[in-house]
Amino acid sequence: MNKIKAWLEQTIYKDYDIKIASSDASFRKYYRLTLEEKSVLLMDSSLEIDSLKPFIDVTSKLSCVGVNVPIILEKNLVDGFLIISDFGDTHYLDVLNEDDFKELYKKAMLEIIKMQKSNVDFLPIYDKEFLHFEMDLMSEWYLKLKLELTLNATQIKLIQKSLNAISDVVLTQPQDVFVHRDFHSRNIMITPLKETGVIDYQDAMNGAITYDLVSLLKDCYIEFNRSDIEELALAFRDKKGLKTSDKEFLKWFDFMGLQRHIKVLG
After folding, report:
1. Taking CA 246 as the corner, what is the angle to CA 243 and CA 251, rounded to the nearest 5 degrees?
2. Which residue of 48, 82, 255, 258 shows the fewest CB atoms closer than 10 Å?
3. What is the value of pTM for the model shown?
4. Helix/strand/coil percentages in the chain, nearest 5
5. What is the pLDDT of residues 10-42, one digit of tens each?
6. CB neighbours (10 Å) of residue 227?
7. Contact, 190 vs 54, CB < 8 A?
8. For residue 81, which phi and psi values (nearest 5 degrees)?
9. Are 51 and 26 in contact (CB under 8 A)?
10. CA 62 to chain centre
């Protein structure tokens, strides 16, 4: 904290009050800086400084295609600090309910469509090898370590065959689009201006067209009726102008969901 305060003394935010805002699943912490009605966030990435450049790069690319991402106001790349605009504390998860989820999801799907217009040449590719790297976490961490199972050769072969079938279907759908990788209800904000704000995208990759749609609609934190989810998924297809049948698109969507949730299980 002393290093943060020393740096703030060199910025226009030196007179702002500082208090903890949140911490995420990584080593980042967030502080809210306030002065009267003004509010900004300080991102403390001092424990993982290497994550700042990807965050800055992806922020720039997404901003260029109109995605509502935080504005970077100040940088301290030596110590690992950024000051960014403040989207507030209201996540999608805080407000989603049976009455408004379709409207909110449609707004979020528009952000996915915008994200998928961004440049992905600089991003790592979500290829077959990486799809399997993620799914293999399930066998290692869930089956072996959590459940303490010892798999025989037949079981190992069956799992490998099943995972291979999943990745084959995932790779038949359109690729080469921006993938946020964690586009769910805890990473989508409703800003003080009632806009949809997107955060936590620094681990983005170049991959399949349904990945972020799956993160949104097959959310680990909240669930709605399957018929409504299918309706929203097909609305996304139509908005994207994809010329594919309901059956094929939902197959892409569901197999992508299998890949993602097997990874999450791991």
Report:
1. 105
2. 48
3. 0.92
4. 45, 15, 40
5. 999 999 999 998 755 567 899 999 999 999 999
6. 8
7. no
8. -120, 140
9. yes
10. 13
Structure tokens belonging to residue 135: 């799914």
| Alpha helix positions (H), the chain | 2-8, 52-64, 92-95, 101-115, 128-137, 153-170, 211-217, 226-240, 246-265
Tokens at 185, concatenated: 């209800």
**CA of residue 212 relative to chain centroid, distance:** 7
Q: For 36-61, what is each residue's pLDDT tens digit?
A: 999 999 999 999 898 899 899 999 99
CA dist 36 and 58 (Å) reads: 31
Residue the block writes with tokens 């586009």: 183
Rounded-to-integer distance, Cα 65 and Cα 201, Å? 15
Which of 235, 179, 161 shows the shortest CA–CA distance to 62?
179
Sign, CA dihedral 57-58-59-63, equals: positive
Helices 246-265 and 153-170, packing angle to 10 deg: 130
CB distance 233 to 215 below 8 Å = no
Cβ–Cβ < 8 Å for 234, 249: yes
Q: Give me 226's structure tokens.
A: 């399957």
